[in-house]
Amino acid sequence: MGTETDLSDDDAGANLPDVADYLSLPDDATDEEAAAIVAAIAAHVADGERAAAAVAAAAARSEPTWEGEKWTFAGRVTATSGRRLRRVPDGAPREKWTAAARADRF
């Protein structure tokens, strides 16, 4: 069914610790109990890998926002032009020079 992966010759696996160093099965565990323990550990590791992949995918597709920078931008426009901005819209260009050129519309 599954395939075994030998990491001994793989450079990526060279720095991985041997799982057997950290885990032990009870001496009196039956084959079924040992299989259940291994399955639980494999499911836990797979869940962690899926969660890490989901976080990486979300970070890759998220776009920069004005979150936390609207007040800074509005303050700079006020300081440099003397014109006070009422608000910086969410749809404003994220690139500061482009946004500054459109500040009269805010």
UniProtKB/TrEMBL annotation:
<feature type="region of interest" description="Disordered">
    <location>
        <begin position="82"/>
        <end position="106"/>
    </location>
</feature>
<feature type="compositionally biased region" description="Basic and acidic residues">
    <location>
        <begin position="87"/>
        <end position="106"/>
    </location>
</feature>
<dbReference type="InterPro" id="IPR058335">
    <property type="entry name" value="PccX"/>
</dbReference>
<dbReference type="Pfam" id="PF26062">
    <property type="entry name" value="DUF8022"/>
</dbReference>
<protein>
    <recommendedName>
        <fullName>Acc operon protein</fullName>
    </recommendedName>
</protein>
